[in-house]
Give the backbone structure.
Amino acid sequence: MTSADLASLPLDGQLAEVLAACGRNRERDLADLFRLLAQPSISAQGIGVDECSELVRDLLERSGFAARIMATPGAPVVYGERCNAPGQPTLLIYGHYDVQPADPLEAWDSPPFEPTIRDGRIWARGVADNKGQFVANVLGARAWLETVGELPINVKVVVEGEEESGSPNFPAFVAANRDLLAADLVYVSDGQVFETHQPIVEFGNRGMLYIELVAHGPSRDLHSGNFGGVAPNPAWTLVHLLATMFSPDGEILVPGVLDAVRPVTPELRTALDAIPLDEAAALADIGLTEKAAPKDLPYYDRLMVRPTMNIAGFTSGYGGAGSKTVLPAEARVKMDLRLVPNQDPAVIYDQIRAHVAAHAPGVEILHHGAMEPVAVALDSPLAAPVRRAVEVGFGVAPVDVPMVGGSLPSAVWPKELGVPAIVVPYGNADQANHSPNENMITERFYAGIRTSAALLGAMVGQNRQI
Amino acid sequence: MTSADLASLPLDGQLAEVLAACGRNRERDLADLFRLLAQPSISAQGIGVDECSELVRDLLERSGFAARIMATPGAPVVYGERCNAPGQPTLLIYGHYDVQPADPLEAWDSPPFEPTIRDGRIWARGVADNKGQFVANVLGARAWLETVGELPINVKVVVEGEEESGSPNFPAFVAANRDLLAADLVYVSDGQVFETHQPIVEFGNRGMLYIELVAHGPSRDLHSGNFGGVAPNPAWTLVHLLATMFSPDGEILVPGVLDAVRPVTPELRTALDAIPLDEAAALADIGLTEKAAPKDLPYYDRLMVRPTMNIAGFTSGYGGAGSKTVLPAEARVKMDLRLVPNQDPAVIYDQIRAHVAAHAPGVEILHHGAMEPVAVALDSPLAAPVRRAVEVGFGVAPVDVPMVGGSLPSAVWPKELGVPAIVVPYGNADQANHSPNENMITERFYAGIRTSAALLGAMVGQNRQI
C-alpha cells in the first residue's frame, strides 16, 4: 500500500508512527529473517533444530521480549513475553521454526538454505512455512517498542519446533503451561491466500480422523490358480465393506456420522458465497473439469460445510508392472475423514468401528490420529480488530473464510486456554511450501509486519470479549 | 514299489526287462540329472540359458535321440526325436529347462545350483520345476533303447527355455513347426501331487484372463484437506465399480461371464468326489478355517468347475507406515479370472469391457494376457495307457484330476497340433517350486523314469484314437 493509502485510513497517531518506522527498517527486518532462513531446522530429520531455537530466542531478545528455550520430549519450544500493559488484553502469537526437508535439492533454482531475493520474492525453505510469517509478527511488535518505547498490549510468543512432524509434544506443552500462555486471543499467521492475493481471515479449520482398515485373508500370499475360489480374498472383503461406507453419489453411509454436522446458517451462507472463486480455473489446475459427486454442491461447501471420507491409500497384493497371479494375504486401506463442526472424532471413530464390526467382523481397524474441528464465530468481538489490522497492513479489506479445508491442531487453544485462534495467512497462493522453490512475495512479508503492528494497536481495550 | 509288487503286475516281457534296467542305472541317471541341475538357467534374468540348452541337447543325444537346438526370438528350444517305429503312435514329451530365480539365497539350506541328496530328497533349484520331471521322461526312453535296442513307439521331445517367463515365444514356435511336432499325444510331467503322495493324471487346466483397471482422478496427488470433497477420488471409483462386478456372496456379477460354464455331468461329479481331500488340513495350511463364499460349495468345485474373479493387486495413494493425507491421482486394480471350459477369454474380456464402460466410463482397462481353459475327456482312449503307465511306475493306481486350478498354455496342443495333452506330475506336494529349498523326493524321480518307460510300452498300437 502506498503512503497515500495509509494516510486515508483513520490511524491512531502512534500507529502511524509505528508503521512509518516499519518502512524505514525494511533492510534490517529482512536481514533478521535471512539469519533464520539460513539455518536448516528440519524436525523430521533432526537437523539444526536446537541451533534454530537459539536463533529464535536471540531474535526475541533483540526485539525486547524476555525469551527462553523450554525443553519438551522432542524439539524445544521458544517462549517470549513482554507483558507491561496492565489492564490491556494479551495476545499470544503462535508459530513454528521447523521446516520441511528440502529434497529434491536439484529441483531448487537457488539453494534452499541460502535465502535470496529474485523477481520480488524471497526464496528459501521455510520462508513461508513458517519463518517469514511468525517473524513478521515479532517484528511488528518490535516496531512499537522502538517507536513508542512500549507495546500497547501484552504480547506472548510461542514458537514450536515440531509442527512439520505433527506437533507430537505441543498439546501437552500447552496443557502444562496454561498460566504462562494465558491470553485473550491466539493469533497465527500460517498458510496462504487465494490466487487473487486478497488477504483473508480464517475462522476455523476442519478436524480429522485418520484410520486404517486391515482385512486378513490366508496366512501368506497364495497362487491364485491353486487357491483362487478356495481362499477368501481380503481385497474383496475391503471393497465390499467400503461400498457400504460411502455411496457412488458421494454420501457417507456410516450411520450417525452426519448427525452432528452444523447446519448452514444464513450468515454462514453469505460468508461462503463471498469467498472469491474461479471454479473452472481451480479445477483446471488439478486436471479436472468436473467436481466429485454430488455435482451440484457449491465449491466451498465441499471444504467448509460437508465432512469427507477419503481413501488415502489402498494396498493389497501385487502393484508392480505387468501381471502377477497372487491371492493376497492382506489388504489395507488408509482413510482420512475431514470433520466439520460439531463432529467429534471420538464419536465418529466409534460409529465406524460399530459399522465395520457389523459388516466385516474380521476386519481390523487402526486409529492413526484425530483432530477436532474448530470454528470461531464470524461475529466474535475479536474478529473486528483482526479484520481492521489486516486492512491496515495489506491495504485491502480481507475476506472472511469460515473454515479451512485442511486440519490443524488448533483445538488445543480453546481446549487448554479457553480462547479461540484466528489465522491470517501471509503466504502467497504459490508459496510452494513443502515443495522445492518455496517462496514468499517480499511485499507480503512487509505487509505481515504492518498487520501485526496494526493488530497490537487495534486490540487496545479489547479484553476478554470472546 | 518293491520288485514283488512289480512281479504281480501283468507286465509285457520287454517292459519288465526295461524296468529292471532302470533299477540298475540309478546312479548314472542321477548323475545325468545333477549335471543339468548344476547349470543355472534363469530365463527371467537371462542367466545360463544357452549353456543349459546345450546340456539338454547333449543328454538327448547321449540318450539316442537326434537332437538340435532351435532358435526363437527368446531362449532356444531343444528338440529331439527318435522315430524308428513305423505304424506305431508318436508321443511328444514336453518340458522346460529354465528355472525360477533362486533368491533369497540365504533361505536355502544348501546352495540352489549345487544339487545334493538329503533326507531322501534331491535339493536344487529346478529339480521339480521342471528338470527332474522331463529328464525322467527322457531317461525312461533311454532304458528301452539300452535294453531292447529300440523304442517301441515314436518319441519326440521338445524342451523350451522360457516357461518361467510365461512362454512368450513357444506358441509361435509350435505353430511354425506343426509337422515336426506332429504326434498322437502330448505327455507332460510338471507340477505336483496331493499331500497323500498318490499319483494323479490331470485332464485339463483352467484358463485365465488378466486385466488391469485404471481409474484417473486429479492430475496429481492432492492434499486431502485442501481438495477433499472437491476432487473425485479414483480409489472410490474403483471400489464402486468392483462392487458391481463381484458380490459379497462370491458371485461374478458381470453379465454373460457365466453363460458358457460347462455343467457338471454325473461323470465329472464322480471324478470330483473321488479326489482325495483333507479339507481342514488344506485350509489350516493356508491359515484358514473357512472357505470363501459361498461356503457350501465343495472344495474341488472351486478349482475345477467355477471360474474365479480374483483381485491380484489394488494400489492407490499412500501405502507406507502411519498416515499421509493424500487424495490420489490414480487407482489401479489387477485382476485375474480363472476360466473353466467352455469360457472364451476373448468373449469374457469384451463382456467386462462393456460392463466397465457402462458403470465407470472413465476407467481404463488393460489386457495383460489370456489363456484358454483346456479339458481332455476323462474317457479319452489315450487316458487308459497313461493310467496304466502311472500304476506301473508308481505301484499305485492314479486318481483322475479333471482340471487343475492353475493355468498353463496347454491350449497350444489341441489348437496347433490337434492333439490333447495329458499331465502326470511327478513332484511331491511340498516340492517348493518357485521358493527356496526346492526339492524332489528321490524315489519320485525314479518312479517317473519307470512311468515314462511303461508309457512307451502301453502306447504300442494306440494310434490316432483321440
The radius of gyration of chain A is 24 Å. Residues 1-9 of chain A have pLDDT under 50 and may be disordered. Chain A touches chain B through 71 residues (CB under 8 Å).
